[in-house]
Amino acid sequence: MKLGMVGLGRMGGNMVERLRRDGHEVETYARTAPERTADSLVELATQLEQPRVVWLMIPAGAPTEHTVQNLLPLLEDGDTIVDGGNSNFRDSIRRAAVAKEKGVLFVDAGVSGGVWGLAEGYCIMAGGEAEAFGTVEPALASLAPEGGYAHVGPSGAGHFVKMVHNGIEYGLMQSYAEGFALLRGIDDFELDLQQISGLWQHGSVVRGWLLELLERAFTEDPGLEGIRGYVEDSGEGRWTVHEAIESAVPVPAIALALFARFSSREDESFAAKVNAALRNQFGGHAVKAAEAKAAE
User: Fold this and answer.
1) Which of 4, 61, 88, 174 is buried deepest, with most CB atoms within 10 A?
2) SS3 97
3) C-alpha angle 161/163/168, rounded to 5°?
4) How would residue 294 be classed by pLDDT, with cut points 50, 70 and 90?
5) Is 64's pLDDT higher than 50?
């Protein structure tokens, strides 16, 4: 099939390459990519024949909103927009409704696979009307490994499933992080963390791809000395916890994993200072003096 790709970053660029390898014709647009085939959304639309399919792989929020608003007037009845970014599922429901008023189909596609997707394939969770899913299914089949894509429900369902997927990812990563911190914290054994992360991949109930990646990280830097312990979050974990609160569904592991990421960004925890001050006040426990700040 022929389609247009907007966004040629780490994910979009590799997806274009994988699609082209499988025989699809892909026209491209990205503001800063010299390898693009179009210099604007207008030109991209003219490079495609009806029914057009335009796939967005751009940051969620304002960039996606701006692109959808500018793309819709360029499309016609029966054309399809695929949002493959990490948009909030409520935004996807709204955008699908707006697109439908103009006769344009809309697919919200949660995409997982990262930089490994080019070689291994992408797991794709698609939401939207059955007609829209059918239109883009040939591309999905090329992008995903066998069994790696599905129509998971109506508009918004794809990004909702991807949101929860990323929330689970937070919890898994935090469990590995805490476990290996404890392994490293016992001085008596001088454990080889690279060895253990490799060992657990064979028959262990905690084996998995994240553990394979952790072994790779320990192989490259056994003590992770070159990495600062600062962990960002891209929003999906916050949305997962928010939706859990709204639905009264307990997700303590995911919530604590999110809060652990917040804690990683503090040079010094004010909450810990409060704890130390209280212990000193009620029990006379010693406190450590704060280090003097360097003169500006």
Assistant:
1) 4
2) helix
3) 95
4) very low
5) yes
Q: What is the C-alpha to C-alpha distance for residues 126 and 124, in angstroms, rounded to an integer?
A: 6
**Which letter does DSSP use for residue 129 in this model?**
-
Nearest residue to 254 via CA among 194, 172, 143? 172
* Beta pairing, strands 53-56 & 2-6: parallel
Percentage of the chain with pLDDT > 90?
81
232 is catalytic: no
Please tell me which residue in 27, 162, 215, 236 is annotated as part of the active site: 162
Q: Count the alpha carbons within 13 Å of 62 in the hemisphere toward its beta carbon.
A: 0
Average pLDDT, the chain: 93
Q: Per residue in 23-48, pLDDT tens?
A: 999 999 998 888 999 999 999 999 99
- Catalytic: which of 65, 120, 129, 169? 169
Q: Decide if 162 is catalytic.
A: yes
Q: How far apart are CA 159 and CA 149, in angstroms?
A: 13
Give the tokens for residue 115: 């930089």
CA angle 124, 41, 56 (to 5 degrees): 10
The pTM of this model reads 0.91
CA atoms of 155 and 107, how far apart (whole Å)? 7
pLDDT for the residue numbered 296: 42
Q: What is the DSSP string of 42-73?
A: HHHHHHSPSSPEEEE-S-TTHHHHHHHHHHGG
